[in-house]
Amino acid sequence: MEYRPATDADTAAIAALHAESWRLHYRGSFPDAFLDGDVGTERLAEWTERLARPAPEDRTTVAVDRRGEIVGLVHTILHDDPEWGALLDNLHVRPDLKRQGVGARLLACSAEAVLADDRPSGLYLWVLERNTAAQAFYAAQGGVERGREPFDTPGGGHAVGIRVVWPDPSVLLGEPDR
Question: Which of 6, 93, 110, 176 is deepest in the core (most CB within 10 A)?
Answer without folding.
Answer: 110
